[in-house]
Design brief:
111 residues; mainly alpha; 4 helices; 0% strand
Length: 111
């Protein structure tokens, strides 16, 4: 069995080509009309909400005792923090929900 190894220069060239191809795919998928932009924003907002709902139980199990922990303010802050984490994950590519919702929103508008 013969193994072929890439040298560092070949690896970096291949990595750059892969990144360039990924950027081209993302650019081709990017919304261009107002309708597409609004649908994409709605899809990402929906995904952010779903991600936040999935993360909320995980954060509710973290102890908040201590000198500066706990209380009503902590509960309010934690809710905002979980929402922002959900938005951040959705903006960063998410878990695939936004892409599916976006396609369905556009398909529903075509009918």
């Amino acid at each position: 069995m013969e193994l072929n190894f890439l040298n560092t220069a070949q690896f970096h060239t291949a990595q750059a080509k892969t990144a360039e191809a990924a950027r081209a795919i993302d650019a081709a998928k990017a919304p261009t009309t107002k309708r597409e932009i609004a649908a994409r924003q709605a899809a990402e907002s929906f995904e952010a909400l779903i991600i936040a709902q999935m993360l909320a139980p995980m954060f509710s199990t973290v102890a908040t005792d201590g000198e500066f922990g706990g209380g009503h303010s902590e509960a309010i802050f934690r809710g905002f923090m979980v929402d922002e984490i959900g938005k951040s994950v959705a903006r960063g590519g998410g878990i695939g929900i936004a892409d599916s919702v976006y396609r369905e929103l556009l398909a529903a508008q075509e009918i």
